[in-house]
Amino acid sequence: SSELTQDPAVSVALGQTVRITCQGDALRSYYASWYQQKPGKAPVLLTYVKNNRPSGIPARFSGSSSGNTASLTITGAQAEDEADYYCNSRDNRGNRVFGGGTKLTVL
Amino acid sequence: EVHLLESGGGLAQPGGSLRLSCATSGFTFMRYAMSWVRQPPGKGLEWVSAISSGGDTTYYADSVKGRFTISRDSSNHTLYLEMKNLRAEDTALYYCAKEDEWLAEYFFDSWGQGTLVTVSS
Fold first, then answer.
1. Burial B55-92 (b: 16+ CB within 10 A, else e)
2. What is the DSSP letter of B11?
3. Phi/psi-derived region of residue A21, left when phi > 0, alpha when psi is between -120 and 50, beta in every other case
4. What is the pLDDT of residue A1?
5. Torsion of CA B5, B112, A40, A90, to 10 degrees
6. CB B18 within 8 Å of CB B68
7. Which of A7, A15, A107, B100 has CA 20 to 30 A from B7's CA?
């Protein structure tokens, strides 16, 4: 299966740590990348291949992987981190696939 | 700085056609794979299609295979998506995305702002 499953919604208290997960068989073979999308805006790449971050992405965002699960951890969540988060990977045919997305609320 | 500018969206009737374009600048176009990703109103991201840097290999989501064709023109640094036999469920904001590669893994490092396609009678 090439599906990636994410929890639809997660909440975190301001300044606390939150983990957003992504599950799928594809993740046993390929790494996930993570994207943040705010309302009315295009997605932004947060992490890719293990725990690489593009320049300009704060260090509080980190990626990890174990078995069929990839995780995005936000250490010390800020109010501006309230957004939708998507994981992405690929399947054996080379097709890319997104998770259904997780809406993060910062309380 | 990478710039991706989509155009060509609009209203189409079911069964109709549209051609989307993505004009690019700020990077060596012929070195990177490119993708189209769509987002129906109020819903999540859906990958649609990808094309290799040289244009010789293409990939399609099952939902669009046989109806959509991705192509690229290195002479004018532009990515295209030809959409035929459109359905209501193709209604979405269509993003153009640049792919990068690290350790044989691909990810989307730059995105356009999207062009809206509405399929309705």
1. beeebbbeebeeebbbebeeeebbbbbebeebeeebbb
2. E
3. beta
4. 53
5. 150
6. no
7. B100
B116 in A contact zone (CB under 8 Å): no
Question: What is the rounded CA–CA span in Å between residue A45 and residue A23?
Answer: 19
Q: Which of residues 66-95 of B touch A (CB under 8 A)?
A: 95
Q: Measured at the alpha carbon of residue B47, what is the angle toward residues A70 and B72, in degrees to the nearest 5?
A: 130
Q: Do B112 and A42 touch (CB under 8 A)?
A: yes
Question: Rounded distance, CA B97 to CA A90, Å?
Answer: 15
For B69-95, write each residue's pLDDT tens digit.
Answer: 999 999 999 999 999 999 999 999 999
Tokens found for residue A48: 């890719």
Q: For residues B53 and B51, what is the distance between their CA atoms, to the nearest angstrom?
A: 7
In the chain, the amino acid numbered B13 is Q
Shortest distance between the Cα of A10 and any Cα of chain B, in A, equals 16
Rg (CA), chain A: 13
Calculate mean pLDDT across residues A3-12.
Answer: 97
- Give per-residue burial for B40-50: e unless 16+ CB within 10 Å, then b: eeeebbbbbbb
Give contacts of A37 with chain B, Cβ < 8 Å.
Answer: 45
CB B2 within 8 A of CB B59: no
Chain B residue numbers touching A54 (CB-CB < 8 A): 109
Residue B12's nearest CA partner among B81, B111, B96 is B81
